[in-house]
Each structure stands twice: as structure tokens, then as C-alpha cells.
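Page 42, continued from yesterday. The earlier attempt failed because a stray header line got pasted into the input along with the sequence. Redoing it now with the clean sequence only.
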Amino acid sequence: MTTSADMLSLPIPDGRSDRYAAGWAFADVHIRKRGSLTSEAPTDWHEEKVAGFSDRLATERAALARRLRTHCTCGEELEPPTNGLGNWGSWRCRKCWAGYCQDCGSPLDYNDQCIAYREAQEEDANE
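This time it went through. C-alpha cells are written below.
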């Protein structure tokens, strides 16, 4: 059986009110319909619902910023991947050679593996 929570792109954070959840879900649909990530919630909404809407849009903006990484934390431009490994290529800093995941923009570890992906896998294994 599919619940409405299963249809969300990102789950609603734990411990939130129903009003917050409604705002989060509304923003999730707004994003899927390619709505602006800087949209404002209607002025007649309850403040908790507005918070859920705003938080979901902020989460999406942060995720987009990670995917669109073009510069290293040292400020230097990143070199695009040239290894032909598809999604698991890495972007390298032209100055300090730090690596970043092509998919999410997360830093790579010393084995050129995405740190965010590894941490998510470890978290899933611990649950």
C-alpha cells in the first residue's frame, strides 16, 4: 500500500506538526511542478505550514547548490571528470586536487568515493 508520505521526494523531518507536514508536502508538489525555489507561501497560511513550505524549498536549493558545484572550497575552479566512469566520475580542483562527487558535489575520500554516499550507506546499515 502506498501512503502519501511514500509519494514525497524527501520525507518530512521527524517530530513535526501536521501543519508543518502539510507545508512541506505542498512545497514538494510545487517543486515537482517546476515551481520557483524562491516562492513565498500564501499569507493566509498558519506559521507552521509556512515553515514547512519554506524549509522544503530551502532543502531543495541546498541540494541543487551541491549538484552545481563549480568551485573548490579553496576557491579554485574544478576540472571536469575525464575518466569516462559515468556518474561516478570526480571533479578535481585545479589548485589543491581535492575531489568532489559529480552527482552530489560532496567531497571524495582518499579512495575517490563520495563521502555523502558512504555515510548514507553506513547510516542505513546501522538502522
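Notes: The radius of gyration is 18 Å.
Reminder to self: strip header lines before submitting.
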